[in-house]
């Protein structure tokens, strides 16, 4: 029996589908987390961090 016969009998067709579903779920989760409205204050604070001389804690803004 050849290796190609063994690999064709394994039924590996589900793995690309599972990978795509995993990728899409993570992508939608990140997209949802970034676009929430109540995080605007946190994002406004973090966008200025590279320009700040000292880093203040988020709750002491």
Could you describe the 3D structure shown?
By secondary structure, this protein is mostly helical. The longest helix has 22 residues, at 14-35. It has three helices and no strands. It has a domain at 13-52. The mean pLDDT is 81. It has helices at residues 3-9, 14-35, 40-47.
- Coarse shape: elongated
Helix content: 55-70%
SSE pattern:
HHH
Largest sheet geometry: none
Number of strands: 0
Percent strand equals under 5%
Instruction: Specify the number of helices.
Output: 3
- Pick out the low-confidence regions: none
Structural class: mainly alpha
Overall average pLDDT: 81
Radius of gyration, CA atoms, in whole angstroms: 23 Å
State the end-to-end CA separation. 69 Å
What's the quick description here?
The chain is mainly alpha-helical. It is 61% helix and 0% strand.
Q: How are the SSEs placed, and which strands pair?
A:
Blueprint: H1 3-9, H2 14-35, H3 40-47
What would the keywords be for this entry?
3 helices; elongated; 61 residues; 0% strand
